[in-house]
Amino acid sequence: MMKSNILKRTAVAVAAVLSVLSFTGCSQTTSNTGTVSDDTAELHNLNVGYLASPGHLLYFVAQEEGIFAEEGLNVNLVLFGENNSELTALESGKIDVGAFGSSELVTYLADGHELTVFGGAMIAGHGLIVKPELVEGIPPEDWSLELLEGKNIGVEGVDSGHIVYRSALKQLGLEDSTNFLIFADGADAYNSLKNDDIDAAILYAPYRILAEDEGYVILSNSGSVEGFEDHVCCRQAVTNASLEQNPDIYEAFLRALIRAYHFYQENPEKTIQDTAIYVDVELDSLKKDTYDYDSQIANPDPDILGMTNFYHALVDTGFTEEFDISQGLSAELYDKALNDIIAENPDDSIYQFLLDYHNRRD
User: Fold this and answer.
1) How far apart are CA 292 and CA 287, in angstroms?
2) Which helix (H) or strand (E) holds 78?
3) Is the pLDDT of residue 10 over 60?
4) How many CA atoms lie less than 13 Å away from 144 in the CB half-sphere?
5) What's the order of all strands across the beta sheet hosting 217-221?
6) Rounded to the nearest 5°, which phi and psi values hold at 21?
7) In 10 A of CB 195, how many CB atoms?
8) How is residue 111 annotated by DSSP?
9) How far apart are CA 25 and CA 118, in angstroms?
10) What percent helix, strand, coil does the chain show, rounded to 5?
């Protein structure tokens, strides 16, 4: 399980939120490694909210490899336990930007909150975790979502994994014969599974690997569910006012994430070491959760098409009414940041992949 120093980091994060400064020059930068640099007079402060998940590794790599600083940013990473408190912190100005669940962002936009989704973070990254007796004697090739009929499934709010599996069960005609139980966060859902209060849980990384390490079974990974392959999960979001006032800062932020993606693709071992500073899981398990279960667990692309598809899934499952979601989605800064980097690195295959991915999905 996650060790007790996660609690210590949470206390530090809360203290950081209370003392946040916005976009100003600063005298030093501090990462979770304790490294301090005094040569940051020209950097812009940026307070970034994150969850302790490998799906947020673009932040961790950009911070620990000095990419944020190279892009002119003095980033303070602020830890949160779930999306709603992080969104509240964004709107109150306690953080400037963060990665938030796609489903939560859709419902926030539906309620009229003035936010813009302008970049990407986590891709897929959820597992449908069941007790081993549910699949006992059944060959893995015969595992299916039909095994959930009549079962109690724990979910975190309306997070993306919840929407993927609720939609899939609805398509199978099983929505009414399964019972979804809402929990405040992934930890609560996981603990309920361990206490035998539920039969299955939809858990995001790293709870997915922690459950498997303790003998539970990953019946399915969300990125492989038909119709939701490599679905959007956490997206970068910012208030409209802040984006309008500081477009250059947010473009630099996206440049840093694009470069961090490149590092993540080329340097698995160092990426896991960087991620482990923020996600307190054994290195071998963390690497498995980060690189083995999804075709990619993080991508900086805003994926407008993917967000639009998720919006339709939320409408179809009754979690929101129809509205014009396009007003809250923008790829403008990402287009510019990615094309500028490709102009500097025209023959780089990883950046070309990001361009192809962007063009086919948006």
Assistant:
1) 8
2) strand 73-80
3) no
4) 7
5) 179-183, 152-156, 200-204, 126-130, 217-221
6) -115, 150
7) 8
8) T
9) 24
10) 50, 20, 35
Element containing residue 202 per DSSP (H, E): strand 200-204
- Decide: 129 and 217 in contact? Cβ < 8 Å: yes
Q: Rounded to the nearest 10 degrees, what angle do helices 247-266 and 57-64 cross at? A: 90
- What tokens appear for 119 in the block? 């970049």
* Model pLDDT for residues 303-335, shown as the tens digit of each residue: 999 999 999 999 999 999 999 999 999 999 999
Instruction: Express each pLDDT in 151-178 by its tens digit.
Output: 999 999 899 999 999 999 999 999 889 9
CA distance 361 to 301: 9
Q: How far apart are CA 78 and CA 75, in angstroms?
A: 9
Nearest to 301 by CA among 263, 258, 264, 336: 258
What is the C-alpha separation between 138 and 159, in angstroms, rounded?
Answer: 29
* Bridge partner list, 36: 30
Q: Is omega for the bond preceding 300 within 30 degrees of 0, making it cis?
A: no
Tokens of 348: 């780089």
- Of 66, 77, 62, the closest CA to residue 300 belongs to 62
Provide the residue type at 146 as one letter.
E
Question: Phi/psi of residue 78, each to 5°?
Answer: -115, 120
Residue 175 has a pLDDT of 87
**Does the structure show a pLDDT above 80 at 112?**
yes
Report the SS3 class of residue 162: helix
Place of tokens 């960087």: 274
**Residue whose C-alpha is closest to residue 158's, from 107, 193, 227, 86:** 107
Write b or e for each residue in 111-123: b if 16 or more Cβ atoms lie within 10 A of its Cβ, otherwise e: eebebbbbbbbbb
CA neighbor of 23 nearest in space, from 45, 39, 41 = 45
**Type of residue numbered 57:** L
Neighbour-count burial of 269, counting CB atoms closer than 10 A to its CB (0-12 exposed, 13-18 middle, 19+ buried): exposed
Contacts with 127 (C-beta within 8 Å, 6 or more apart), sequence order? 161, 202, 203, 204, 205, 208, 211, 212, 218, 219, 220, 221, 222, 293
On whether the CB atoms of residues 205 and 125 are closer than 8 A, the answer is yes
**pTM confidence score:** 0.86
For 26, list phi and psi in degrees, rounded to 5: -145, 170
